[in-house]
């Protein structure tokens, strides 16, 4: 039976400002990328989400990002190697401490937002993040954009890589994501999203924005938790994948 992981970005609320419905998403996904406080999240809120993930048996990943609360980590930043290396270690370590207190553990690392997209193709920043993960624990897998150069870089450095596709994002013919704010960047129709991801899970193929099919190696599918329709999208996606004979399992445990 074909199988795939379903993940979402959680733990992003800050003080009295809620972001997404973590409890509802944790009843649907198999892995949760938990904010580490740099792009979003506060310690108490992160700890609550980790405790809920532990109760649900959902795998936890460190969702590291640029130090950019105001921009939600979605602004490109020219961070030097030493700073990015140390910030990677810092964020993973912070989440590891909270995860231990919550009765769970950090099973993988996934960069967020602009950092995720930058290291997909930028060798310098990718090297700093990869080195930071290796310094903390060489056994921690890196979740990265399927088909991007960072996948080979991380594997060459000795890291296991979880290749990821995005349920609610449009793709360019070269496998990159359509830039946010441009037509076709985000898909909102739950039925269309589910159909695209079912085909990806079965055939390893997704339709690009120009209609052409592109091949992607993907072990995990992401549904963005900050989308107001995220829970409905994730729920239909899970139901359609299971109905289509796809087993949902975390890549890590």
TrEMBL record:
UniProt-listed Enzyme Commission number(s): 3.5.2.9
One GO BP annotation of this record: carbohydrate metabolic process
Taxonomic source organism: Falsigemmobacter intermedius
Function description: Catalyzes the cleavage of 5-oxoproline to form L-glutamate coupled to the hydrolysis of ATP to ADP and inorganic phosphate.
UniProt-recorded Gene Ontology molecular function terms: 5-oxoprolinase (ATP-hydrolyzing) activity; ATP binding
Protein name: 5-oxoprolinase subunit A
Assigned protein family: Belongs to the LamB/PxpA family.
Presence of the UniProt keyword Hydrolase in the record: yes
Subunit field text: Forms a complex composed of PxpA, PxpB and PxpC.
InterPro entries assigned: Glyco_hydro/deAcase_b/a-brl (IPR011330), LamB/YcsF/PxpA-like (IPR005501)
Catalytically driven reaction(s): 5-oxo-L-proline + ATP + 2 H2O = L-glutamate + ADP + phosphate + H(+)
Keyword ATP-binding among record annotations: yes
């Amino acid at each position: 039976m074909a199988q795939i992981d379903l993940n979402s970005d959680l733990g992003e609320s800050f003080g009295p400002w809620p972001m997404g419905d973590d409890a509802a998403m944790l009843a649907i996904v198999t892995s949760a990328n938990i904010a580490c406080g740099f792009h979003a999240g506060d310690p108490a809120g992160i700890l609550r989400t980790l405790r809920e993930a532990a109760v649900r048996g959902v795998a936890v990943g460190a969702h590291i990002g640029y130090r950019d609360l105001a921009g939600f980590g979605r602004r490109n930043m020219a961070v030097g190697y030493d700073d990015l290396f140390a910030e990677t270690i810092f964020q993973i370590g912070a989440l590891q401490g909270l995860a231990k207190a919550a009765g769970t553990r950090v099973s993988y690392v996934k960069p967020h937002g602009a950092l995720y997209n930058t290291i997909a193709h930028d060798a310098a920043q990718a090297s700093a993040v990869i080195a930071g993960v290796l310094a903390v624990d060489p056994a921690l897998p890196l979740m990265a954009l399927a088909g991007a150069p960072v996948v080979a870089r991380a594997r060459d450095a000795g890291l296991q890589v979880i290749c990821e596709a995005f349920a609610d994002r449009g793709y360019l013919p070269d496998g990159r994501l359509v830039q946010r704010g441009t037509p076709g960047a985000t898909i909102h129709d739950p039925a269309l999203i589910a159909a695209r991801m079912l085909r990806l899970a079965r055939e390893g193929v997704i339709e690009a924005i120009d209609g052409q099919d592109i091949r992607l190696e993907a072990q995990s599918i992401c549904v963005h938790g900050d989308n107001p329709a995220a829970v409905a999208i994730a729920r239909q996606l899970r139901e359609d994948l299971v109905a289509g004979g796809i087993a949902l399992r975390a890549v890590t445990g």
